[in-house]
């Protein structure tokens, strides 16, 4: 059963949405940064082996 929020419903649902979107966004950001770091590390290791 959903709680009754009355006149503050828009604000409360917005906070719920922010609470769901922010952690997901941070997770995606961390994944992208980790992949970029992995690619850079692989590239640097390949250069080191060649040189």
SS field, number of helical segments = 1
**What is the global morphology?**
rod-shaped
Parts with pLDDT < 50 across at least 5 consecutive residues: none
Q: Could you state the oligomeric state of the chains shown?
A: single chain
- Count the strands? 0
Helical amount among residues, as a percent range?
A: over 70%
- How far apart lie the N and C ends? 65 Å
- State which percent range the strand residues make up: under 5%
Q: State the major sheet.
A: none
SSE order in H/E notation?
A: H
Main location: membrane
Function: Required for the export of heme to the periplasm for the biogenesis of c-type cytochromes.
GO cellular component, one term: plasma membrane
Keywords: Cell inner membrane, Cell membrane, Cytochrome c-type biogenesis, Membrane, Transmembrane, Transmembrane helix, Transport
Textual characterization of the structure:
The protein is mostly helical and 51 residues long. 82% of the residues lie in helices and 0% in strands. The protein is built from 1 helix and no strands. The protein has one helix at residues 9-50. The longest helix has 42 residues, at 9-50. The chain starts with 8 loop residues before the first helix and ends with a helix.
